[in-house]
Structure formats: C-alpha cells, structure tokens
## 1
Amino acid sequence: MSELFLRAIFADNLVLSYFLGLCTYLAISKRLDTALGLAAAMIVVQTLTVPINYLIQRYLLLEGAWAWAGLPDVDLTFLKLIAFIGVIAAAVQILEMTLDRYVPALYRALGIYLPLITVNCAILGGSLFMAERQYDFGESVVFGLGSGIGWALAIALLAAIRERLRYADVPEGLRGLGITFVVTGLISMGFTAFSSVALP
Amino acid sequence: MIRGLWTPDTVGWLLVAAGAPVAVAMILDQGPDGLIRLALGLAVVAAWQSLFRFNMGVMPAPASAITALAVAVMAPHEVPLWQIGFAVSFGAVVGELIFGGWGRNFLNASAVALSFLSLSVPNADFVAGDAGLALAVVPGAIMLALTGILPISILAAFATALWVAAMALGLTPQILAAPGTLVFAVVFLVADPVASAATPLGRWVQGALAGAFTAFLMTGTSVPQAVVFAALLAGLFAPLVDQGIIALHLRWRRVRHARP
C-alpha cells in the first residue's frame, strides 16, 4: 500500500510522467498561494472521485453487477466514461459551492479553472487508471489520495520556481509559457529519477 | 574598483580556483583523455556563451567552467566525445543561459548536464571517484567556505541526512566505496551559491533533502547517478522550501510582535 502511495506521488506522477492536466497546471502556477488553493482542490476532488467511481463501476457497471436484482446478463461497461464524468462534475460542483460560501477570495482567484477541473485530464485519468489497473477499494482510496498529492506537489514546485524566476532574464521569445514549458521539462527530468533509475 | 571587490565575477573566479586542483587530479588520473574531455567541454561552454553574449546580451560567467569540469570528472569513460559535448551544451543552455546566465539560473547547470547524460546512457558506469579526488576537492572547499561562498549548513545537513538514511537502508558500504564522487558532488553540485536555497533554515532543509534523496535513489542505481539526481531534485525543491520558510517566518513574527 505504501509503495502504491509513493509510486502515485513520485514515479507515476500524473502531470510529470503522463503529462495529464497540463492546461490548469500551466495556467494557475503564476502565484504560489493560488496554486496551493488549486492543489488542495485537486487533492479533495481526486480523493473523492476515484473511490466513488470504483464503487459505481463495481456495483453498477461491470458485467454481473446486477445479479442481485435477477439480471446477471446486464453489462453496462459502455457507460463507464459518462458515469465517471458525471461523478467528477458533481464533485466539482459541490466543491465550487463550498469554496464560494467559505473561501470567496480563493473562489474568485481560481475563476474559470475551478469548473474546468471537471474536464481536467488528471482527474478523469486517475479514475481510468483505477479501472484499467483493477485496483480494489482500499487501493483506489490510496491511489486517489497519492495521485492528488503528486499533482499538488508538482504545481507547488512549479509555482515556487516561477516566483523565483522573476529574477531571471529570459530571452524575449521564451517569456511566459515558453520558459514554463522548459521548467516543466526540467522538473519532469528530475522526477524521471524515481521511475527510470530507482524503480525500474 | 567602483563596484567593490565582491562582484559576481570574483565569486565565479573563486569557484574556478576551487575547481583547479580537481581538474589537475582528474587529468593525472585519467591521462590525456581527461584533458581532451575538459578542453572540449570548456570550448562548448565558451561557444554557447559567446553566442548568447552577442545575440541576447547575456554576460559570460567564469563559473560556467565548472559544468565542463563536472562532466569531465564524473562522465563514464566509454561515453563518446560528441555525447559529452551534447551534455555540456544542454547544461549550459537549458540550465543556465536561457534564464539569463549564471547568477539568474535556478538549477545547478552541472547537475542538469549530468542528469541529461545519465538519462542518455542509463547503464554506463559513472566514475565513482576514489579518496584522491576527495582530497583534491578539500582545499577548494575550505577556501570557498572561508570566503562565505560555500554554505556549510548544506554540507553538514547533506552528510548527516545521507549517513542516517544510509544506515536505515543498510547502504553504508556503497557510500564508503565512492567518497570522491560524493564529496565532489556535494561541494560543486548541491551546495551551489546561486541555485541553492536562500534562507538559512532552507539550506539545512535542502541539504537534508539532497542527502535523503541520494540514499533513496542508491537503492536502485549507482552512487554517482544517485547523487547527481539528488542534487537536481534538491535544486527543484529549493524555491518551494524557501517560500515555506518565509511563510513560517512571517507567522512567527506576527505572533511575536503583534499587539493584542
């Protein structure tokens, strides 16, 4: 379990190894405090949606899941994608209302990117990885939490580095997104150590 | 002397002076091959620096010579020269020059170059320097520490964390087998005067992170590759560590000085 947790944070980091959820990652990393807000939102959403999606898949969608109702032949696997997206959308909607009520400053700072977590590839990717790798319930909780923390760690690192890069003198053509891509590549190169060198 | 003695160039030349005994020891150890690799690395660094000087106005820095030295010292012997040139180019350009040159970079260029090389030739044997290399690093390190360029806190934290983590994982024999690489890497890669953490407490944290990462990565790879990647990772974490320390410091101040 702890190995799965560490793998999800470091070696199989969603953003640095699979490049999922890059849009939000690049857009909300200018300031560290906003990035930390989004990071917390990602951890919450990921930890909620992966286990919920596991339960939905296991007890509603997989072949034979309806056997208790006398319908052993029903196979609803084709609804997997839309069911996962529905769960994610609902979780984000609840999170959005909570933030709007209790932390309005963060709600305004995150702006359009909060509802866009719904279509964040990292969240859907986490659920699909859970389905593909056939985790059980405990593993899906650990994987959801670990991959959320991994994504949060990655955006916190990038935001801190970008704040430090205010002292840098980047060539004209690379300013803004260009240098951010380069920095993302360098962070990814550092994290490669965990996947290719240390844990083959 | 209008700007005083302590210009970035002074620091840079002191770093080069600290690297000089290492270069001599490396050439004595590896023979003409070592000299050719060092010369190639220096030529590549000089070429990129002049390109950036005349096209972007980035001032050349003597300290970048350390990148060429680090690659020449630690790269595997069987790596062809063009790959050495590639690695030094990557370190000098992506690690340093595109951020505005030495002094404005946020990562150690030598660590970037060596990680790049390590990913290009994953199964090659990186040089695990002997005690001779470690001895050659010591005079330069003492000189840098006395002039205040080398943060001693990073060295102390690195050594402590590495030793404790290695004891916990049962890896002490491997550490004792490669003293040269470890000492060279901690002085020239981890304890970088520009790229390491800026807050005093942050330096302890960064050094400890580097030591712990080294021990952890050693479970799956050779000591030189582990310490190179640990230096890169600790550099990546340094800005976040600094921000955290500053936030804590602000909170402590508020608690101490706030009027009720």
## 2
Amino acid sequence: MGENPENRVDRIVNDLLRGRRLRLRGGDAEEKEAITAAARLVAAGQGAQRMHPAFRKRLAAALESAPKGGWLTRRGAMVAGLGIAAGAVVGGLAGRALEPVRAPEALGPRKINPIPGRWVDVGALADFSEGQGKRVSAGGVGAYLFRTGSTVTAVSSICSHLPCELQWNGGNGVLDCPCHPASFRPDGAPTNQSYSLPHLDLVSVRVTDAGRVEVLGT
Amino acid sequence: MSTDPGPPRDEGVAAEGDADVLELPAASRTTAIALDELELVYAFIYARVGNRPDAEDLTQQVAMKAIPRLRQGAPASAIRGYLFATARSVLGAFWSTRLGLSEAELHEDLAMAIPAGPPSEEPAERARRILEGLSDNYRRVLELRFLHGYSLKEVAKEMRSTVGAVKVMQLRALRAAAKVRLDG
C-alpha cells in the first residue's frame, strides 16, 4: 500500500540478487520495464547458466520413467533427436512424464504403505501443537503431522510434483515447496488452482492409548 | 507475442541421413540428447528471469508443452525452433501472470524480444552492452549493485551519496537499461 516505486523495485532486486524467485505484488506492473531489466541484468552478471545437476537429474528421471504408450514412432523420436525414444527406451510420452499433473482420476490422495512397514513412535501427543505442522521421520518416511484435538493426520513431506522437502509455513498455514511456486493445505490438497498438482501422499498415523503418536514407516 | 506456437510444421519428411536431421541416438543416449536441448532452453529462460527456481519451473513447462507435440518427420531445425517458440510462449504467460497484465499489455520488447535460437553472445557481453549504453552514474550504480553485489549502503558510500538517492538512481538506471536491446 503506497510503496514507493524505488522501494518496490529494490525489494525485487534484492530477491533476485539472493537467487530467489520473482515475487511480484499488485502495482509492480507499473515498473515492469525496470523489473525485467533487473532480471536480465542479474542473469547477465551471473554468467552462462546451466541446469543445476539436481534439476537435470529430475528431468532425466522423468524422461526415463515415462509411461508406456508413446506418441512418436521410433522414427519420430529419431528425427526429433530429443530422446522421446518411442519403443527403445521409454517408449512413451516424455512430456507427460514431465507434467506436474496426473490424470484427473488420479489426482486423489494415495497412501504410503511401506513394505515391510512398522509403526514408529514420533513423540507424545502433547508434543504436537494444534494448527501447526510438525516434520517427523519414521525411518525412510518423512511426514508432516497435524493435530486436531486428540487426532493426528499426516501427509508426506515430499512435494507431489518436484521431489523437494516441503517447508511448514505457519503464517499461512500451508506447506510450501521450496522448488517451485506450490503449496499444500494440511490435508494435502494443493492450494493453487491455476497450477494444478496432485494431492500429497498420505501417511498412516495413529495415537496409542498411552498418548503416543506413531507413524507407519520403515 | 506469446501465443501458443502450435506444433512445428513438417517441412517435408526428412530422409534419414539428411544433414539437418539428428541421427538416431543409441537408446542410452536419448535422454542426454533431450537434456542437451533443454539446457539451451534453460539458459535462454534464465537470461530473462534471472533466478534458478523460476527458470527451472519454466524449462519444465517448455518440456511438458513442446515434447509431446513434436511431430514425426520434423527436421532438427524445426524442433529447436519449436522449443524456443514454446519458451517464448511460456515466458509470456509467466510475465503476464506475475505482473497481472494481459499478454496483450506486455510490451513487445518486454519479454518477447527473443531470437530464433539461443543467444550467441556471452552473458557478460550482454551486461557490458547494457551498461555501456547508460550515463556514468547509472552505469556505476548498476555495476556495483548487479556485477559486484554491493548493498545499497555500500553503493551509497562508494558514490558518496545517500541510500535513498541510490535507490532512486537504481530505479531510473533500470528503466534506462530496459531500453537497451539485448537481443538481435
């Protein structure tokens, strides 16, 4: 409200210089030329950029794990030279593998059922505050737990789109993904309708008679 | 501007062995080749958004949109062109969403001044070209801030000015820098 244009642009410049994504607010469009110039200048000042190895690895994994049922013929993939690999490797629709969206019928939550699984004690019920997400580990299963009275629910701590550890944002009451503009409600549903993502995986959790919270982990 | 470019046109069915048709990669190399193409797209996008998280998201969007629509028989040149046309479309939508403007409101040279392929010059050269088109004070404030990473306070000290004045100068310098064409 009433932010000076120089303050507005400097806020964005500071974000860019710290490697943060562009977070624009209402009214920033008035300085669109300065903002885009700042973005270009930051990029130019950082030299030639290549994909971060972790990101490249994620893309590679997505390409290689594409589902069967390809679009392109082997020849199409060959001519494209893009590794769509109809038949040979992935035999499928690589783009679909990269898509953040599962098919609509698959958008509902899935439950993590580790095999073999075991119930892992993650603390006393009293350790969990109402309305606050708490990150716990149950062996190889990472989860955020949410307490409502005497019940506790849990969702996976891994984003359903990019394999990044979610962060609890207590101010907004959501789980934020640090890797892209996505957040999820405590029940695991994505908050942003325009950036459609699958529901977070659900994690089994129970409260014992002794008031201990246990998560089905490994 | 940033409308969906549509699938690449078939420019005749290229015969295997044609000079502009990429060779059939060995199965184990196919993903690497895809990633190499997307590396160019990533660098191209990064140069316009200036940060890794957004560049990664947008590169992934390009892959998601473009790769399924590649047609059998499209020559390699058309494939690369299509990827960059898709990148332009994705960038247009990105700026439109972030700034709350319709894509029609985005000025032609704002995000869309995009070459047919990856830029040939190095980022440092682009920075030099931007800065040399500015007045001494504007160039200095942007050099210190963007190339040397000075804080506003440090810039003010260096330029014997105040933080407030430097902040205003930074804004004006960026407005002036926006008028410097980087591409083409």
